[in-house]
Each structure stands twice: as C-alpha cells, then as structure tokens.
Design a protein that fits this description.
The protein is of the alpha/beta class. The protein has eleven helices and 20 strands. It is globular, with a radius of gyration of 22 Å. It starts with a strand and ends with a strand. The model has no long low-confidence stretch (mean pLDDT about 95). Bound molecules: S-adenosyl-L-homocysteine. The site of S-adenosyl-L-homocysteine has 16 residues, from helix 7 and strand 15.
Length: about 400
C-alpha cells in the first residue's frame, strides 16, 4: 500500500472527516490514478484510506477514516446500500431521484440518479473511475435493477485528467424515458440532456412554485433558464393563465414544449423563447412588460470561489432586471447553484439587486436542493443550490 504523507498541520480537515486532500497538503508520496493510498499525518499517524488523483488539485479523496476498513468490492456494496437506504427514509414524490450524491454519501466523485427502472451514473473522479465496474455491479445489486447508463461527459472529469465517455455500462434500453414528478409527466433524454437528464434537485421547488402561483393567483409567469420546462409545467399546474419560458438551448425548449403537452395543458398558454435570458429580460423591461411570478434558475455562473466576484455581478444584474419586471405582490423564485457563492453572499447579491431596481420585497423562504441531494455535517461543500422566494412589496 502506497503512503501519502501530509505537511504538518494539514491533517486537521481529515480529523474532522472532510474527504478532500489538496495537492498543497501533500509532503511526499504518489500513486496511479484512482489507486487506494494510505494518508498519514506528518508524524506518521493513519488518517484515511483515499483514492489518489495525480492530475487533480484535489490530490486524493478519502474513502474511509477507519483504519480497519478494506477498500474492496464489499466496501463499495456497503456504501451503495447505505446511500440507497437513506433515500427510503425520504418521502420523494417522484419515480426519479438521486441515489448517490458523491462525497455526501461517502462515495467521492460518484453521482447516480434513478429514472424509473434505469440508473444513470457519472464517474467524476479518478477513484470512482478506477472502481467503475465494481460500483456498477454494486448499484445494480443493491437496487435490483438491470440497466445503467453512464454519463461521464461532465467538465469535472477534465480536472481529474479523465476523458469523456458515455453509453450503456450495464444492460440496454431506450434513452428517452418518461418520469412522473408530483403526478406531472416529463420526458427525459438521459443520453443528451444536461447532467444525467433532469434537474432533480429542483423537485421540491417546482411544487412550491405551483403552490405560490396558485396562492397568489399569478396569471402571467416568466420562467428564465427553463431547460425542459419543469417550472413551466408547475406554473400551469398552479393555474397561471400564460407562461413564457426562455432558454438558449433549442433542444431543451423543444422538450419543454413537449412536456407542457404531456402534462395536458393547452399549448396556447405557453410561449417559448429561444434567446439569451439577459437580452430577453432587457427587452421585456424596454417593452414595459410585467409578470406576477418569475423563476430565475441560471446555470452555474461561478464554478469556483475564485470566479465568485465576477459571477456575483452577473447574478445581481439578472435579479435586478427580474425584480423590475415583477408586479406588485408578485413572487420571484431566484437561485444560484454555484458552490463558490454561499447562501449569505447570495442573499446580499439579491438584496443589492433590489436596491438597484428600487424594489423591496419580503423574503418568504430560503430554498435548497431536494433532500435526495444531501448535505452532511462533514462536507459543507455539499450545499451548492440555494434559492430565495421574494415577494414584491
Ligand atoms: N430550471 C430548470 C433547470 C435550469 S438549468 C429545471 O427546473 O429543469 C439552466 C438552463 O439555462 C439550461 O437549460 C441552459 O440551456 C440555460 N442557459 C444557460 N445560459 C443561458 C443564457 N445565457 N440564456 C438562456 N439560457 C441559458
């Protein structure tokens, strides 16, 4: 077993069971990509078993902090079983859910979503990549399913020195699937959709949005960054007279249109705009438009803490424009999924957007990812998605 020795003082985060070992913490030692290594403090104490990643700034990710543990197939079966069992304690109103959420489930670099009888997995770090076959077998064994599609074509792989790969890993079948969330049918393309196909993390927010649209009697709704129309369907289900959905991806809009039809809503109530959201918001402001409910769910604008400042300006501008478009008593659901922007900073950004727009509002609620995307005590980075419900005064 290869040993990685840390610099003095750099054992602290591991003693708190945080799973990341940064390159700057490593004093000596090396291994192959994904190889299991023994992490030791500068004075030679055992800290963790970890997967080494020579190309990554996160030089190793801990599998276990227990010296007696063996990192072998039975270990991975146990971790998959625990993650899956944790979801059975949640009440998830959908047949699509996240079964494994990486570090939060003790499986760094592994993301697994279930869409009905099909699993979709992303292997995003060297360790998960090395144990791919074992993990695939463990996942099928623990779920009793037979189909697993791989979507390891995410940018994060580059940081680990891994190439892109996608396709059936186990079994075979259609890649255009149907799911039911809150009783609403959605088509999901697991081969070409974003991430694993659907933004499962916004499930609870979509229902909340439908409730707010209903409760406030919102008639005109604007869904910015609509992707495949999750919030658009929610708006119509909540009773909106019309919903305008904006995205710059033509295939996403096409599916959004299909999803509105699938949910059984009159196509005349839904308008789809293939455009940049920034441009559209400016155009709506120039036209003197106004909406009773708005969703602002942009992509990750700050991939790292270093990019946070620039991203903060972009978030602020989007929120300023949206607040200007919001009718009195109207409701804004606004989000950031950037890990580099914490909940406090996001709150400040939206507050300063309000100041610039000359608009005040009640913060009715703080939002986060659905609970099948857990945060843990040891890994605060697991909190990436944050949102606010703002009701205009
Ligand atoms: N709210 C959605 C998920 C949004 S994901 C849901 O519940 O499913 C972010 C979306 O923003 C993606 O669909 C992407 O195509 C779109 N996007 C990214 N940059 C954009 C831009 N500048 N203008 C318009 N859409 C953009």
């Amino acid at each position: 077993m290869k040993v990685i020795r840390l610099h003095p003082g750099r054992e602290r985060s591991l003693l708190r069971r945080h799973p990341w070992i940064f390159d700057s913490a490593v004093a000596k030692g090396g291994a192959d990509p994904g190889e299991t290594v023994r992490i030791e403090s500068s004075d030679g104490r055992f800290l963790a078993w970890a997967a080494f990643s020579p190309a990554s700034g996160i030089r190793a990710r801990a599998w276990s902090f227990d010296e007696a543990e063996r990192i072998e197939p039975a270990f991975f079966r146990g971790r998959c079983a625990r993650a899956i069992a944790a979801r059975t304690r949640l009440d998830i109103p959908s047949d699509a859910l996240r079964l494994v959420h990486g570090e939060s489930d003790g499986l760094p670099g592994l993301v697994v979503d279930r869409y009905g009888d099909t699993l979709v997995a992303q292997f995003l770090a060297a360790g998960a990549e090395r144990w791919k076959k074992v993990l695939a077998d463990a996942l099928l064994q623990e779920t009793g399913l037979a189909k697993l599609y791989e979507r390891s074509d995410a940018n994060a792989r580059k940081l680990e020195g891994l190439g892109e790969t996608a396709g059936w890993l186990r079994g075979d079948g259609p890649t255009e699937l149907g799911i039911s969330e809150h009783g609403w049918r959605f088509g999901v393309d697991i081969a070409h959709g974003h991430k694993t196909g659907f933004y499962l993390d916004q499930r609870d927010s979509r229902r909340k949005f439908a409730q707010w649209v209903g409760r406030t009697g919102a008639r005109r709704v604007l869904n910015c960054f609509c992707y495949t129309g999750g919030f658009s369907v929610a708006a119509l289900a909540g009773g909106a007279a019309s919903v305008t959905s904006v995205d710059s991806s033509a295939p996403a809009l096409e599916r959004a249109r299909a999803n509105v039809a699938l949910a059984g809503f009159d196509a005349a109530r839904a308008e789809f705009v293939d455009a940049d959201v920034n441009d559209s918001l400016r155009r709506f402001v120039a036209e003197g438009a106004s909406f009773d409910a708005i969703v602002l769910d942009p992509p990750k604008l700050a991939p790292s803490a270093a990019a946070a400042e620039r991203a903060a300006r972009a978030y602020k501008d989007l929120n300023r424009l949206a607040l200007k478009l919001l009718a009195e008593g109207g409701v804004l659901f606004t989000y950031s999924c950037s890990g580099g922007i914490g909940a406090d900073l996001f709150h400040k950004i939206v507050a300063s957007a309000g100041a610039d727009a000359g608009v005040d509002g009640y913060i009715a609620e703080r939002l986060g990812a659905a609970p099948d995307h857990p945060m843990t005590l040891a890994f605060p980075e697991g909190e990436y998605l944050k949102g606010l419900i703002v009701v205009r005064k």
